[in-house]
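S.,

Sequence below, as promised.
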Amino acid sequence: MAPLTHVPDFTRLHAAVIGDLIADHYVYTRPGKLSREAPVLVLRHRGEKLGAGGAANVACNLWALGAETRLLGAVGPDDVGRVLLERLEKDRIDCSGVLWVEGWNTPEKTRILSAEPRRTMQQLLRIDREPDEGLGKETRDALCDRVRSLAGQVEALLISDYQYGLVDEALADAVAVVQAAGAVVVLDPRRNLDLFRGLTALTPNLAELALATGRDESELDDPAAIAVSAHEILGRVEPLWLLVTLGNRGMALFGREVPAEGLAVPASGPDRVIDVSGAGDTAASTFTLALAAGVDGAGAMQLANAAAGIVVMESGTAVCSASRLRSALASAPRPDRFDRVMGG
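The prediction came back faster than expected:
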């Protein structure tokens, strides 16, 4: 199988993402002294930023690669939601499909990071602020209507599930309308992958694959168990491709025009990883656009792996531009048979 040697032109593509919008709040500090009040370290505040997480980060990745991007989802009428949408609209992402929902608060993940000067920031603590309940039926129905309106308007649709109540059977029905109109449709799942049958692709990580097949994640240390689990999902929900992200072991691909034992690539980039936050979003975004651009599954995995290898070298959720992807592709690992790469 010939390796991919170039990055397609994604600028001709119209893409959309429907999913859970999350605000990633970073608080940067320097370590200080021990507190006299308790046996804890006092941190000196150095700065803060609010970034895009969840489906919002997926949209940023699609846009960074060059695709015209629409975002569908919900935020609360709070400062976090307002600042998040301002940041996205500044990047020229179409947020007209995002609903402001009374009684809902925008999910926010606050990460406290610290380091001495000239050292890499390390995460010390994460605080999650989450809605008390999932999105109501009226909001979900309104978003499904907006998804259906994408039929014939986009070449790619990515569903980003972070389990805040948006992904349900009604959304699966709406997504099917978009796929029937010719779009590549990819699900980056948490739990609800059985709602979606016959999609273009699924992109679970190892923990999500284990959950979907009723296995303990430790069982998937064995490459043979990964392959068995992957084929179980292929038989159950029938996607064309199943891309499994394996963390520091790389990625594995099963499905159409792929050998029964699967294909894999070892992790791209330097051995020293700084931050894995959002790497799955980058992989799913790149894989989706590559498929929409006509790249086969193996080539799309090669691109997704190269892009993920770029963003894990940055602190916080990051994106991979098309130009950086072109530079990384030259030295990125090439797909090979799964058992050879994994040593199984």
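The first strand starts at residue 14 and ends at 19.

Coffee later?
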